[in-house]
Amino acid sequence: MKRMIKGYVLGIVLLLNVLPSTVDASIGQMCKKLGETKKSVIKSKIVNLKCSSQGKKKVWKQLTGDTTYGAKVLESSAAKFVNMAIAVRSQEAQCMLVMKNGKVIAEWHWDSYSANTNIEIASATKSFASTLIGIAIRKGVFGLDDLASRYITEWIGTPKQNITIRHLLAMTSGLEDFSVSNPAINLTTPGLNLESLVTNASQLAVGGTYSGARRYVLPGKTWSYINVNTMSLSILLKRATGETVQSFAQRELFLPLGMTIDMTLDANNNPPLAVGMRAGCDDVGRLVQLYLNAGEWNGLQILTASFVKDAVSPQVTCGECINIPNTFDVSLMNGAYGLNWWNNAVSPYAAAAFGTEKTGPKMPDLPTDMFYAYGSCQQLGAGLPTQQLVVVVLRKGCDDPVQANLYATNTGPGSTFMDELTKAYK
């Protein structure tokens, strides 16, 4: 009996010496197809495994080398994002961040960039602007459907008088942009200031061949993505709160969420809000997470849940046209746009008359409840509510004049981001 017990114990010891310290104990186990690879976790580290020959058998063997791609943080549940990090890095990404249930599960910084480095985020700034307006709405400063001319009084008595705050956020004001090719740079030019541009902004028709029809210059009747809408919100917010936008932003948003953000200012100390913020991947990640949290952050209700829902949902502001689907008026809306946030909703309202897709979602293999902040230099921050997932990628493009206008087509980093996000999501 003692000999049997001794042999049994010895067998256990030998077995323990043979088995690797691995979560799924794949190493040494049989596999089916030579050359096939997968990821595993050994002693809390992510490793690559490859199906390799061992005599006449095919077994999983560990590949050597860094399989984290230099990640600062990488939990086992985020292993599937390594390939995405490699892909966006090839497109000059400087940082990438993944959050799950409000926790960072993967983080990368490349080149001279670190967690303390801010990057020009271009039009992703607009999603921060929307948030500042949403905070003012929660505080009772004004309502989403209040007239902007209540504060931009220069618009009273003009065709701009009936533009609402919602119209400005939804890009359906009917305004035509002023001629400033890059507001983040040109607004600092001597003699050029934001307040003058906004208060004198022209009320001209948008939509090209439709310019002769009055209904297309009325507020709420057509969608057009232009900077003057968001820049007008900067002046409106300053006048409505009686303080600078930057002081309001610091107290009400940046400090509560632990953000460290710089803002480009014009000669009169006004931020354009359409562009010009410099932030890190962590800052953009926190902003997206705020919306996944229905506006709540560490016990504070920063935004109302109703504003969050509006912000990430398609905005169709052509009034009764919504009750007559597939009409021409409806087609002038953009179902892929909310309140300074892009979305992936299935909607027939997608500005078909302006060459935009008429039906959604734009990314059919990603959830239809996905929303995202987007900048022209391919700066992106996506939120996937059902999965409680946040993914952010920032490129150096907006800080580098040579890179700034590269990859502007759908074959650039924006496409890479979504393609790789789709693979990781699957």
What is the second-level CATH architecture of the largest domain? 3-Layer(aba) Sandwich
Structural class: alpha+beta
Q: Characterize the main sheet.
A: 7 strands, antiparallel
Strand content: 15-25%
How helical, in percent, are the residues? 25-40%
Radius of gyration: 26 Å
Task: Summarize the structure in words.
With 426 residues, the protein is an alpha+beta fold. It has helices at 2-18, 82-89, 125-138, 165-170, 183-186, 194-199, 227-241, 245-257, 281-292, 305-311, 328-331, 401-404, 413-425, and strands at residues 37-42, 45-54, 57-62, 73-74, 93-100, 103-109, 119-120, 262-263, 277-279, 296-297, 300-301, 342-343, 371-375, 379-384, 389-395. It has two domains: 19-67, no CATH class; 93-425, DD-peptidase/beta-lactamase superfamily (Beta-lactamase), CATH 3.40.710. The chain is built from 13 helices and 15 strands. The strands form four sheets. It has a seven-stranded antiparallel beta sheet with strand order 4-6-5-15-14-13-12, sandwiched between helices. The chain has a three-stranded antiparallel beta sheet with strand order 1-2-3, with no helix packed on it. A hairpin with a 2-residue loop joins strand 10 and strand 11 (300-301). Helix 2 packs antiparallel against helix 13 and helix 3 (125-138) runs parallel beside helix 7 (227-241). The longest helix has 17 residues, at 2-18. It is elongated, with a radius of gyration of 26 Å.
